[in-house]
Amino acid sequence: MTGGFGPLVTEDGGADDARWIGQPRIIGPSWSRLPAITIGLLGVQLSWSVEMSYASPYLLSLGLSKSWMAIVFIAGPLSGLIVQPLIGVVADYSKSSFGRRRPFIVCATLICSFALLLLGFTRHVAALFTSWRSHSNDVLTIWLAVFAIYCIDFSINAVQAVDRALLVDTLPTSDQPGGNAWAARMLAVGSVAGFYIGNIDLTRIFPILGDEELEVLTALAAILLLATQAITCFCTKERVLVSSPSKRKNFFAELKEIWETIFTLPQTIKSICVIQFCAWCGWFPYMFYTTTYIGELHKQAHPVPLSDEVAVAALNAEATRLGTRAMFYSALVSLAANAVLPMLIKERKTSGRYGSPPPRRSWLDRFKVHLASLWAFSHLLFAVCMAATLFTSSVAGATFIMSLVGFSWACTQWAPFALLAEAILAHPGADDAEDDDEAPSALQQHPHPHQHLDKDDVSGHDSDEDGDGDGDGNAEARRLMGAHERGRQDGPAGTGLMRNVSARESGFDLHEGGDVEDGVSRSRQGNNPQGLSAKAGVIIGIHNISLVIPQFLVTGLSSIIFALFDSGNDVHGHSTHHFVNGTDTDVGAGGGDDLARLAVRALTARQEGEETTATEGPNAVAIIFRLGGVAAAVGFVLAWRLARELKRTGS
């Protein structure tokens, strides 16, 4: 499960038995099953995109200082650290008749939708208790906006964690690569959609949803989140936990287990976590401050007098739109990279896989690289892009730089998780009765995940035999893996993943390792883990912590930098009413006349010596970006060393 704090099933059972009713399945034709179970992540990413592109400029427009804004965004890492383990522990022991995951999806989705609407209509909600645009109304609006952001972060983390856990619970091990590939596609499409709709005038297309851009955008995000999660919940049928005699672990027991596991991890997994720590020192600022960075450059180039509230509102609207456009271009690059890069990953060398001769090399094989090498290059590219902020002061140049970062973001979304899963699955268990044959790469076991979707096994029923090799040993394997696992056989000399006992016990496949009796399945939860696969969830939790801790550090550092370099340079006045108002102050595409008027006002203000929106001194956001680039450069060195080690060992 996401976050990895739940109990895992191992092959060696103990006295404790968990009893289940039914079998997990996905309804609908075979071609629609993986899209149906992953479409919820599209709504999740769309909501994230709205927050990332609009939350920071909106808070600034309310009059919140940048240093306080940085503290507000600690909600992201805080929710990741708290919500994922808690939702995992609670959901794993849920005995709801609707399943363990879907009730939490419904509740968290409703909370997130409410929070999105609150973020878009904070001024109107505050006006219910205070006078319109009074000082008390301004203060309450800020507090409601901060409250909405915290609710969004906490609830969307819960939705995402349970969505991914549902994917793990429902799909067999053989379909996990395909499911994760579809999850990556949905996330990429959600990013593109979220940033694209921020570039168009939504108030003219959907006037019924609100008078301002942010109001319409949050309303659309809430509607799409509800719709996508409804599709996932309707199309997915879970098995129901009837009884679980095992003692339920509390949150502190889980933390203790994580702490003890940290010191016993293999070097490869430790390296992945350290690299992720360095990388996310740079990713966190990029995710939340890119819109602000682009907007600041635009305001520097087109200053207007602060006394002209209409001009300031128009400038803020255009600045936010330009920042969102940069994120949209980055999302497009990421989507394209997600489609192309998996084809450029070199397969692990194995001998006699499935008893067939090695395939002939194609022209594409010349360009294939090891996954870890590609991941290392993505860190280098990110570091170079962050360093390039030293040499650009234009919106066009900064947009180009942030667009290139989309390539690195595509690698970050799947490369470390694939390497981590591969390291867990390939690690031999203590009781591995098989020989030392290498297991194929978890990425490359199904180079084209969609090829086996015509089978009925995705629905949770037994599939027919594939007919590869003899059937020795597979009846026992299918019994151990329950009704979910495919019936693929390996010959005596085969090196398939299913011949690895520790791979069969993978904690990613939580429904395996049980028997089925009269419609009630029984999973044995032993107390003697065999290899890393039995601790897969804990390892994922440790990996999640390596992503969260740097976000706390960067948040504190950002607050200090903003306080030092941006004191007195925050947005003045109260332009909230005009924030990205597509009707009155929109200066987006086709707004040449508005830009011309802004330019005339800027020249007049300079001649008369008026105070303008232009800021003096270094760009604080750019400084944070460069520090993140330094951390990414360290991550590149460590990732390159990891790639060399993995290639040396043939991993």
Automatic annotation (TrEMBL):
The keyword ATP-binding does not apply. It is a multi-pass membrane protein. InterPro entries: MFS_trans_sf. The chain crosses the membrane at residues 68-91, 103-121, 141-159, 272-289, 326-345, 369-391, 397-420, 545-565, 623-643. Keywords: Membrane, Transmembrane, Transmembrane helix, Transport. One of its GO terms (molecular function) is sucrose:proton symporter activity. Residues 430-476, 508-529 are annotated as: Disordered. Its main location: membrane. Residues 451-462 have a biased composition (Basic and acidic residues). It is found in: Membrane. GO terms for cellular component: plasma membrane. Residues 463-473 have a biased composition (Acidic residues). This is MFS general substrate transporter. It comes from Coniophora puteana (strain RWD-64-598) (Brown rot fungus). The lineage of its organism: Eukaryota, Fungi, Dikarya, Basidiomycota, Agaricomycotina.
